[in-house]
Design a protein that fits this description.
The structure holds 2 protein chains of 2 kinds. By secondary structure, chain A is an alpha/beta fold. Chain A has helices at about 55-70, 90-95, 115-130, 150-155, 210-215, 225-230, 265-275, and strands spanning about 20-25, 30, 50-55, 75-80, 100-105, 135-140, 160-165, 165-170, 175-180, 185-190, 195-200, 220-225, 245-250, 260. Helices cover about 25% and strands about 30% of the residues of chain A. Chain A starts with 19 loop residues before the first strand and ends with a helix. Chain B is an alpha/beta fold. In chain B, the strands form 3 sheets. Chain B has a 9-stranded mixed β-sheet with strand order 9-8-7-10-6-1-4-5-11, sandwiched between helices. In chain B, helix 6 (about 215-225) runs parallel beside helix 9 (about 305-319). Classes of the chains: A alpha/beta, B alpha/beta. Chain B: The electron transfer flavoprotein serves as a specific electron acceptor for other dehydrogenases. It transfers the electrons to the main respiratory chain via ETF-ubiquinone oxidoreductase (ETF dehydrogenase).
């Protein structure tokens, strides 16, 4: 990243003066293979009763940041998460993979925050990290799956957002991204700083090495509250949410249908079922 | 009655089916007004009117085609504010959700994504969503600002009103500096397959690891049924089918009338993308495959023999 502007401001978290600073957003989510549920009292996602882990889709963002760091000099990677106590497990994984430092935004007032509040808090945290050139995120969390936080974050920061990126190159003050949509494959150029969210097609995330796991124990992790960020606690959390869940209903288990074993006529039986259901 | 804005999803004026679904839903909550961004409105006018758009706002500006979504979000925000609309509906596509996200921040409004239904309760718009891989149904409503709602394809059958566009308003938008920070420098249209679009199709036939890389029987059955073709993550990761056709958490979410899962075991990653399908048919060699638990009809057998036989039988019945 030799083309960094000379006017770059003083060092951030790492205490160095990086040529490029990347923030990767990581989220600690309930394990999707476990029985996920809601808190009965307020219809929020139950984050305590289920084992959590780093949202799998965020690993691709961490990996992409590491690849950019390995290709250039002086790239600093800050992993950022927002969530209750324990959510820093997601940071730990990012640090083990190779991120330089971590920030955990934690505050009781954040419980029940919606996407809009989440984006507002993350934007404030990114501003506090300071001099960020690139924000990398996954394409969606594996729990809420709304995919809207990166764009909201970019809106708050006044930055470009390029979503669903399958290939990324950084050159000087520009990122070039390829994304494969439903009707076309597009190449996008965006000015840095920018927010980029990447798909699971972009790379193959590494497993933390033993060396990486040992090194992560010594990496700095800061804990910030809403007061540290200058965000009003009344503007976030469940009571300030812009939308409200009225009712949560567990979907009835699908009743098992008819299963036949193919004895040479399985295809005919399949066609008969489709005909009986008026699909043909 | 207050206006409900519907952002028109179109390619050069060819209106996509999802827009007609939105117009149909918008009628439940107010007076549907279409927002048409870009070129080609003349080709879209009759269709929009026929499905109930009494009014259309039209914005034509080169920025809408040259830059990513921000100009569209700015145009829609301006119209939402000036019209005093009671709600904004968009398609739950990646672009629709991104516009919705920016719009919600600009308007200071709540946003709900991936609604599968919309009703009006005590004059409030109430959405239904399917969450946690279809394990739960949630109803919700926006409580602050103008509700911004993205709706999944196939939420409703489009119903024509036989009306026509009564009022057209050309809107000029002054775009901000932020609108031009992400430039589209190249665009290669995907080759047409001749099959329906995956997320809009009423029937989807998907193949997984069990195809062994041979999608011909899956495609042949799809064509006999007029269906779209999908693929599991295992099949896509193996390089057997393009990622654009992946059904699941990291691909497309589909909710067709009929979903046929062929040689797919049914990992949570896949179920998340198809669990809300109305009827599910499974063909798998392994009787223990978890996907059989979701099947309305299942065949334990090799897809390489079962599918061609089914295809031949369907063609015979169709004459």
């Amino acid at each position: 990243m030799g083309a960094a502007p000379a006017s770059r401001n003083p060092p951030g978290l790492g205490g160095r003066n990086p040529a490029m600073k990347i923030v990767t957003l990581v989220k600690h989510v309930p394990d999707a293979t476990a029985d996920r549920t809601f808190n009965a009292a307020d219809n929020t996602t139950d984050r305590a009763g289920v084992d959590g882990l780093l949202s799998e889709l965020d690993e691709y963002a961490v990996e992409e940041a590491l690849k950019i760091a390995e290709a250039g000099d002086g790239v600093e990677i800050v992993a950022l998460t927002m969530g209750p106590d324990g959510a820093d497990a997601a940071l730990k994984k990012a640090l083990q993979m190779g991120a330089d430092s971590g920030v955990h935004v934690v505050d009781d007032a954040l419980h029940g925050s919606d996407a809009l509040a989440t984006a507002q808090v993350l934007a404030a945290a990114i501003a506090k990290v300071g001099d960020v050139d690139l924000v990398l995120t996954g394409m969606a969390s594996t729990d809420g799956s709304m995919s809207v936080v990166p764009a909201m974050l970019a809106e708050h920061l006044g930055l470009a957002h390029v979503g669903f990126v399958g290939e990324l190159t950084v050159s000087g003050a520009t990122v070039t991204a390829r994304r494969d949509g439903d009707v076309a494959s597009e190449t996008i150029e965006a000015d840095l700083p920018a927010v980029v969210s990447v798909t699971d097609q972009i790379n193959e995330p590494r497993y933390p090495s033993f060396k990486g796991i040992m090194a992560a124990k010594k990496k700095p992790v800061e804990t910030w509250t809403l007061a540290d960020l200058g965000v009003d606690a009344g503007a976030v959390g469940l009571d300030a949410a812009f939308s409200v869940v009225r009712e949560v209903t567990k979907r009835p288990e699908r009743t098992a249908g008819t299963v036949v074993t193919d004895e040479g006529d399985g295809g005919v039986k399949l066609a008969e079922f489709l005909a009986a259901q008026k699909f043909i | 009655m207050a206006e409900i804005l519907v952002l028109v999803d179109h390619v050069d004026g060819a209106v996509r089916k999802t827009t007609l679904e939105l117009l149909t839903l918008a009628r439940r909550a107010g007076e549907p007004a279409a927002v048409f961004l870009g070129t080609g409105f003349d080709a879209a006018r009759d269709t929009l009117g026929e499905y109930g758009a009494a009014k259309v706002y039209v914005v034509e500006a080169p920025e809408l085609e040259q830059y990513l979504v921000v100009p569209k979000a700015e145009a829609l925000a301006q119209i939402a504010q000036s019209s005093g609309a009671a709600g904004v509906l968009l398609t739950s596509s990646p672009e629709g959700k991104e516009i919705a996200a920016r719009l919600a921040v600009k308007l200071g409004s709540g946003v709900i994504t991936d609604a599968i239904d919309i009703t009006v309760v005590a004059s409030e718009i109430v959405t239904t969503q399917s969450v946690f891989a279809g394990g739960y149904t949630v109803t919700a409503q926006v409580t602050r600002g103008t509700p911004v709602i993205t709706v999944k394809p196939n939420a409703v059958t489009p119903e024509a009103t036989g009306g026509s566009v009564g009022a057209e308003e050309k809107v000029a938008v002054a775009f901000s500096d932020a609108a031009t920070k992400a430039r589209i420098v190249d665009r290669k249209p995907r080759a047409a397959t001749g099959r329906p679009e995956l997320t809009e199709a009423s029937i989807v036939v998907s193949g997984g690891r069990g195809t062994g890389g041979d999608f011909a029987p899956v495609e042949a059955l799809a064509d006999a049924l007029g269906a779209a073709v999908g693929a599991s993550r295992a099949a896509v990761d193996s390089g057997w089918y393009p990622h654009a056709y992946q059904v699941g958490q990291t691909g497309k979410t589909v909710s067709p009338q009929l979903y046929l899962a062929c040689g797919i075991s049914g990992a949570i990653q896949h179920r998340a993308g198809m669990q809300t399908s109305k009827t599910i048919v499974v063909v798998n060699k392994d009787p223990e495959a978890p996907i059989f638990a979701m099947a309305d009809f299942g065949v334990v057998g090799d897809l390489h023999t079962v599918l061609p036989q089914a295809t031949a039988e369907i063609q015979k019945r169709k004459g």
